[in-house]
């Protein structure tokens, strides 16, 4: 039988000293690495400031806007051009301020995109991890569900569901979108999980007596965290397009609720698209800038995750 | 050395890789000759530069990230300064190469026959019937039992040993004067390894080619090679005939390496193996000057090492880098501080 | 090989059944019923009630579902309320338009994507690669419909280079029909291709880069194969094969995108028909379209798997 | 005393095909093997790639689902997961892996890696745990400043020693070492093997040493089993296997090991070619119709070989005559 080692041969002071020494030798944390990477890349820092600042602004500003008053028709201001009559960005055919609609609409669109990203990514990640880790019949069953979901024409299904449900709001809309937007993430995570599961550190954890759930979420997930962050950032950029696209078609948020999509839908009128460009172009430009900035952040994150591509000094 | 039989002569060959904008030497100042009918083994542990030397001779490095100097004279021409087009006439035709991992070294999407006859396409004017006949002949020569069937298969349908035979068939397709085999048996089982080495020996006997055999396995060298060059940290530290190097190793590295091999007569529970102190520094941390092995033999006085080690002839054809071998002796294991 | 395909097709059957049940139930949940369109507006409530009764509208759902499926198998997709026409005829016309646009987009996509991906991979890290990567990055980020709207605005309205609505000019005849068709699909096709190339270019590029550093390319070099032939016989060939399998998946993307493309360009295809039908609650058309798109998606995946099985000997299906 | 008793162990992998993904055939990775591991010994399991030796090791440690047969530890059959859980099996049976990089979670610090089995099987205070990890690091010859480093900051040999430290953390009785040194350089291999022996002497651990390298196995193991296509072909002590091999497979394997003895290389090559010839010509006498090994027959108290009886009599007869 093995002899238990004597634990008294290291004094507390000695332990303290060894710990401090070890700490000094320790590698920087991943948050630190990420921050260094942003500091080393100026456009990335600017993107980060734009995105964070903008999101904060559109989340806070609408509190001071009376949206009911904003959405009431004002014939007198019919299609006022920008910079006239206190309309910073002009007014639409109903005489409503584009600038104010843009702020409230951004909040709605970004809010839904954030909600959608949170729900669909969480679901997709969990799905991919579980399917990839357990394999066998569990994976087989989950893959059939995945296949079935992939077969559904997403846009059509969402439109049909929106038509059926009468009293939907932004929250139920977010959930409807989420049903159809987790598959990409789940596939990506599953394939990486499959690869990770084959590695010996998972076997080592099993033989060390660690349970399956702990292995999935504490051992495997940290190893694909960079993939998760990158995928989530890119999904966020993509998801802005989901709600706005459907609102553009008229099947997103209810008509009286402003959204970036409904603003761009002003372009559906051949007169608006050329003559009254201010009714839709600002919203389009906003989406473009926002999506570019978010994806750029995603690129920086993925670079930080890959040691060989980092730009920050080592 | 017989001038007439000399196939390849390396003089002061160095290769440096660019890492983070700076060049670090992977191979430095290598002098070697290979003759006809000779198997020269280059032996060393991982990272000692033996594979880099092979790819340097073949010109397989990206010139943008490598710096190569010195001379590698083959058939009167310096390979290291040749243009890519001229090199292509030599590669595959005059020099064949065998790689370590037989699966990844074959194109997964092409049939075996196409991969072998590709060499013939570029170096012979054979008709397609002639090429087919030659492919079958080659597969026979490397010991493949059903050449017609194998020729038609894809790499993934073959076993590791079969794939390595195919690689050898590619390397010898044009009866090259020189074959460079880079760890040809490392990925294989011992019984397959023995067969592959037999194939290599047979081919050499038939074609009178010179072979450069690169390996980390001292046993393979002792069984196969005529001449040995031992590499450490990009330099050749000892060279001579196989009998000289294995029978009377001189350099402390060679001696330590041989000593650290498991011996059959040791006690299972109590006898420990000899361990070389320290470890090979990474390429970035390698000292640029002085005796690179010196830090790993702490019981020899620093003064025993040469400042800038040079080759010393200890017997005809047996050379050792640095004079420190004179001071080296094995102490009892217990005295060796790890 | 045929056995594997047959097996794949058989696995699809339960999926299609499930899809049809789902679509049927969704249709049931929609406002209105299949007679809203076909009955005489002057019929009394009692008469409608009677019609519903004899047509089984009060049967349990599975009974109704069965009847519907039986009709489907006879090619009867029902009557359109809005157009007073058999749905099959209606979709037939629109499908031709969508097919024209999709096929054109796909051809353009591959014509653009393959050279770009190969070129970027070959010249990894150099200026053209950077330019191509910026292009893919930008188009990847911007939502498809925004690209379409802006494209329509700039090239359709501001420069007036392309028609902004319709599929064929009504005045065209003879060969003019074809050229008018091309004129109408040029802009949406180009914009769709611009958007669709992104994934293929990126995939292609990384395939080429992987192949470039692979051992078998090193083997080819040591055989004395010249650089341009290494690209031709090894790198391009090996990177192109997996791309072939993308073709099937592109169908899914194109169908989903057609809803936006056709709405924005007022192009009378299936996507626009769908939006119109939703707006008019023309639900026989809607169910038919959803079912059809679902099956097409499935066929796309099947096609991809088959292509991949044929071109890659490692997973060759036999 | 036998620590582990393996009886008629089979691990078959299903091959699925057909319409409904039904099992149409099986791969017999391990096909009915039996052997015992005594407390305190190193038992060598030797075979070429695909022989099933790794699968055997994995089923002993509980990583592989066993098709049939039994693995008894302390008299308890541990082939079921519930049985392993009940007796905290993995506290006593641990594993060292071949690929040191892949066996250490790259996102975890060394302290968390080594402490993982401790956290699952022994509830220690944070301070005691740290002390234990420091002691373990010392046992395998690593500095205390390794505590908060990540695996990639170490060399291959050092990582393999970290793997050993983790395996011995709970003071196990048996460690499955699956090709522990085959990815290492010669000089580093010596170091790792020495540490394994040192730990064995200090803690009285048994090893199941799985390897294809007969030189290393001879250095490490008292008892050895040779595996071929999922079955055992020869079992015996170190002397039995290396001095008196009977099965052609064992002979062939032994003859194929390259040795550093340059002077006698021609003779060895001749001998190898002779054995190869026998192998080619007589393999049907050594294997059954399916090309698999026969059941084991006892030759001596320690020596077993998989041969039909007539062949065995013939071989032992020859041997006696030679002597």
From TrEMBL, chain A:
Keywords: Cell membrane, Membrane, Transmembrane, Transmembrane helix, Transport. PROSITE patterns: ABC_TM1 (PS50928). CDD domains: TM_PBP2. InterPro entries: BP-dependent_transpt_permease (IPR050366), MetI-like (IPR000515), MetI-like_sf (IPR035906), OppC_N (IPR025966). Pfam families: BPD_transp_1, OppC_N. It is found in: Cell membrane. Residues 106-298 form the ABC transmembrane type-1 domain. The keyword Transport applies. The chain crosses the membrane at residues 44-65, 110-134, 146-165, 171-189, 277-301. It is a multi-pass membrane protein. Its main location: membrane. Residues 1-23 are annotated as: Disordered. Belongs to the binding-protein-dependent transport system permease family. This is Peptide ABC transporter permease. The lineage of its organism: Bacteria, Bacillati, Bacillota, Bacilli, Lactobacillales.
Automatic annotation (TrEMBL), chain B:
It is a peripheral membrane protein. GO terms for molecular function: ATP binding. InterPro entries: AAA+_ATPase (IPR003593), ABC_Ni/Peptide_Import (IPR050388), ABC_transporter-like_ATP-bd (IPR003439), ABC_transporter-like_CS (IPR017871), Oligopep_ABC_C (IPR013563), P-loop_NTPase (IPR027417). It is found in: Cell membrane. Keywords: ATP-binding, Cell membrane, Membrane, Nucleotide-binding, Transport. Gene3D superfamilies: P-loop containing nucleotide triphosphate hydrolases. Transmembrane segments: none annotated. Residues 8-258 form the ABC transporter domain. NCBIfam families: oligo_HPY. Belongs to the ABC transporter superfamily. This is Dipeptide/oligopeptide/nickel ABC transporter ATP-binding protein.
UniProtKB/TrEMBL annotation, chain C:
The keyword Cytoplasm does not apply. Residues 95-304 form the ABC transmembrane type-1 domain. It is found in: Cell membrane. Its main location: membrane. It is a multi-pass membrane protein. InterPro entries: BPD_transp_1_N (IPR045621), MetI-like (IPR000515), MetI-like_sf (IPR035906). PROSITE patterns: ABC_TM1. The chain crosses the membrane at residues 99-120, 132-159, 185-204, 240-265, 285-311. The keyword Ligase does not apply. Keywords: Cell membrane, Membrane, Transmembrane, Transmembrane helix, Transport. CDD domains: TM_PBP2. Belongs to the binding-protein-dependent transport system permease family. This is Peptide ABC transporter permease. It comes from Ligilactobacillus pabuli.
TrEMBL record, chain D:
CDD domains: ABC_NikE_OppD_transporters. Keywords: ATP-binding, Nucleotide-binding, Peptide transport, Protein transport, Transport. SUPFAM superfamilies: P-loop containing nucleoside triphosphate hydrolases. Pfam families: ABC_tran, oligo_HPY. The keyword Metal-binding does not apply. InterPro entries: AAA+_ATPase, ABC_transp_ATP-bind, ABC_transporter-like_ATP-bd, ABC_transporter-like_CS, Oligopep_ABC_C, P-loop_NTPase. Residues 15-254 form the ABC transporter domain. One of its GO terms (molecular function) is ATP binding. Belongs to the ABC transporter superfamily. This is Peptide ABC transporter ATP-binding protein. It comes from Ligilactobacillus pabuli. The gene is oppF.
């Amino acid at each position: 039988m093995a002899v238990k080692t004597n634990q008294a041969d290291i004094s507390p002071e000695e332990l303290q000293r060894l710990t401090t020494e070890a700490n000094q030798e320790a590698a920087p944390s991943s948050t630190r690495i990420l921050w260094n990477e942003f500091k080393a890349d100026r456009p990335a820092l600017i993107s980060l400031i734009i995105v964070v600042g903008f999101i904060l602004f559109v989340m806070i500003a609408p509190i001071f806007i009376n949206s009911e008053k904003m959405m009431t028709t004002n014939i007198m201001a019919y299609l006022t051009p920008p910079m006239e009559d206190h309309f910073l960005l002009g007014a639409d055919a109903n005489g409503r301020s584009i600038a104010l609609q843009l702020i409230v609409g951004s909040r709605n669109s970004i809010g839904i995109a954030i909600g959608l990203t949170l729900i669909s990514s969480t679901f997709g990640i969990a799905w991919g991890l579980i399917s990839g880790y357990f394999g066998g019949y569990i994976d087989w069953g989950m893959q059939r569900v995945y296949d079935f979901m992939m077969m559904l024409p997403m846009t059509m299904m969402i439109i049909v569901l929106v038509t059926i449900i009468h009293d939907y709001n932004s929250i139920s809309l977010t959930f409807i979108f989420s049903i159809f937007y987790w598959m990409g993430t789940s596939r990506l995570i599953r394939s990486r999980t499959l690869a990770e599961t084959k590695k010996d550190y998972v076997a080592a954890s099993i033989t060390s007596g660690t349970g399956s759930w702990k292995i999935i979420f504490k051992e495997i997930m940290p190893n694909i965290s960079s993939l998760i962050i990158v995928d989530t950032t890119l999904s966020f950029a993509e998801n802005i397009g989901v709600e706005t696209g459907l609102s553009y078609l008229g099947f997103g948020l209810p008509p009286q609720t402003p959204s970036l999509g409904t603003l761009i839908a002003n372009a559906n009128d051949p007169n608006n698209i050329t003559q009254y460009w201010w009714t839709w172009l600002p919203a389009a430009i906003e989406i473009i800038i926002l999506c570019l900035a978010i994806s750029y952040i995603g690129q920086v994150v993925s670079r930080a995750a890959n040691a060989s591509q980092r730009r920050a000094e080592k | 050395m017989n001038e007439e039989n000399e196939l390849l002569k390396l003089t002061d060959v160095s290769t440096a890789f660019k890492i983070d904008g700076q060049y670090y030497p992977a191979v430095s100042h290598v002098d070697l000759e290979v003759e006809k009918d000779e198997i020269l083994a280059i032996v060393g542990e991982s990272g000692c530069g033996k594979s880099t030397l092979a790819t340097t001779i073949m010109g397989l490095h990206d010139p943008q990230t490598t710096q190569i100097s010195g001379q590698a004279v083959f058939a009167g021409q310096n390979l290291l300064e040749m243009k890519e087009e001229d090199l292509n006439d030599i590669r595959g035709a005059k020099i064949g190469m065998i790689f370590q991992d037989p699966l990844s070294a074959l194109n997964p999407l092409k049939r075996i026959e196409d991969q072998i006859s590709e060499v013939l396409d570029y170096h012979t004017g054979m008709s397609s019937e002639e090429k087919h006949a030659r492919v079958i002949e080659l597969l026979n020569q490397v010991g493949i039992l059903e050449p017609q069937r194998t020729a038609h298969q894809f790499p993934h349908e073959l076993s590791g040993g079969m794939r390595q035979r195919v690689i050898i068939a590619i390397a010898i397709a044009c009866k090259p004067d020189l074959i460079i085999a880079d760890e040809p048996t490392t990925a294989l089982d011992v019984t397959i390894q023995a067969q592959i080495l037999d194939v290599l020996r047979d081919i050499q006997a038939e074609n009178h080619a010179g072979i450069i055999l690169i390996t980390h396995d001292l046993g393979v060298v002792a069984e196969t090679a005529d001449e040995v060059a031992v590499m450490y940290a990009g330099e050749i530290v000892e060279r001579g005939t196989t009998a000289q190097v294995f029978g009377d190793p001189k350099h402390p590295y060679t001696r330590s390496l041989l000593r650290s091999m498991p011996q059959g007569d040791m006690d299972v529970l109590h006898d420990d193996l000899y361990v070389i102190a320290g470890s090979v520094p990474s390429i970035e941390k390698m000292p640029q000057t002085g005796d690179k092995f010196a830090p790993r033999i702490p019981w020899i006085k620093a003064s025993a090492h040469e400042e800038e080690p040079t080759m010393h002839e200890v017997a005809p054809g047996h050379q050792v880098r640095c004079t420190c071998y004179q001071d080296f002796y094995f102490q009892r294991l217990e005295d060796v501080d790890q | 090989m045929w056995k594997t395909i047959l097996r794949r097709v058989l696995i699809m059957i339960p999926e299609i059944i499930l899809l049809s049940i789902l679509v049927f139930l969704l249709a049931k949940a929609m406002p209105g019923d299949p007679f809203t369109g076909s009955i005489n507006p002057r019929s009394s409530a009692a008469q409608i009630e009677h019609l519903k009764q004899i047509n089984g509208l009060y049967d349990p759902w599975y009974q109704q579902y069965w009847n519907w499926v039986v009709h489907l198998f006879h090619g009867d997709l029902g009557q359109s309320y809005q157009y007073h026409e058999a749905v099959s005829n209606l979709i037939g016309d629109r499908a031709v338009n969508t097919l024209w646009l999709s096929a054109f987009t796909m051809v353009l996509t591959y014509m653009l994507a393959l050279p770009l991906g190969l070129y970027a991979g070959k010249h990894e890290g150099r200026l053209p690669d950077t330019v191509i990567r910026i292009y893919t990055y930008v188009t990847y980020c911007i939502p498809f419909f925004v690209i379409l709207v802006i494209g329509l605005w700039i090239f359709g309205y501001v420069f007036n280079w392309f028609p902004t609505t319709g599929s064929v000019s009504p005045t065209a005849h003879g060969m003019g029909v074809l050229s008018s068709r091309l004129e109408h699909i040029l802009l949406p096709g180009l914009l769709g291709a611009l958007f669709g190339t992104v994934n293929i270019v990126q995939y292609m590029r990384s395939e080429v880069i992987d192949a470039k550093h692979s051992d078998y390319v090193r083997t080819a070099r040591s055989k004395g194969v010249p650089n341009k032939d290494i690209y031709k016989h090894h790198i391009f060939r090996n990177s192109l094969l997996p791309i072939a399998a993308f073709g099937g998946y592109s169908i899914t993307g194109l169908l989903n995108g057609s809803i936006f493309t056709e709405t924005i360009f007022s192009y009378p295809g299936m996507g626009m028909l769908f939006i119109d039908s939703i707006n008019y609650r023309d639900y026989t058309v809607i169910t038919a379209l959803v079912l059809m798109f679902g099956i097409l998606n499935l066929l796309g995946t099947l096609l991809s798997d088959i292509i991949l099985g044929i071109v890659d000997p490692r997973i060759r299906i036999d | 005393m036998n620590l582990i008793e393996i009886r008629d162990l089979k691990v078959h992998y299903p091959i699925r095909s057909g319409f409904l993904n039904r099992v149409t055939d099986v791969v017999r990775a391990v096909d009915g093997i039996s052997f015992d591991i005594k407390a305190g010994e190193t038992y060598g399991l030797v075979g070429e790639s695909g022989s099933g030796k790794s699968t055997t090791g994995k089923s002993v440690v509980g990583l592989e689902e066993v098709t049939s047969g039994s693995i008894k530890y302390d008299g308890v059959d541990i082939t079921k997961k519930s049985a392993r859980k009940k007796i905290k099996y993995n506290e006593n049976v641990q594993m060292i892996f071949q690929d040191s990089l892949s066996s250490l979670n790259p996102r975890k610090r060394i302290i968390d890696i080594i402490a993982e089995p401790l956290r699952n099987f022994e509830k220690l205070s944070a301070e005691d745990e740290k002390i234990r990890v420091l002691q373990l690091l010392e046992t395998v010859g690593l500095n205390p400043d390794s505590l908060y480093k990540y695996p990639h900051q170490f060399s291959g040999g050092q990582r393999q020693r970290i793997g050993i430290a983790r395996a011995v953390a709970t003071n196990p009785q048996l460690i499955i070492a699956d090709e522990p040194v085959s990815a290492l350089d010669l000089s580093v291999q010596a170091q790792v093997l020495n540490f394994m022996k040192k730990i064995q002497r200090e803690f009285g651990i048994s090893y199941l040493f799985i390897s294809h390298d007969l030189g290393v196995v001879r250095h490490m193991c008292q008892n050895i089993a040779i595996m071929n296509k999922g079955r055992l072909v020869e079992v015996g002590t170190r002397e039995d296997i290396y001095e008196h091999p009977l099965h052609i497979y064992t002979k062939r394997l032994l003859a194929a090991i390259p040795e550093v003895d340059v002077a006698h290389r021609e003779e060895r090559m001749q001998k190898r070619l002779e054995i190869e010839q026998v192998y080619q010509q007589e393999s049907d006498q050594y294997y059954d119709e399916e090309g698999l090994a026969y059941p084991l027959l006892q030759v001596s108290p320690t020596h077993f070989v998989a041969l039909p009886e007539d062949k065995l009599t013939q071989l032992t007869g020859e041997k006696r005559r030679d002597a």
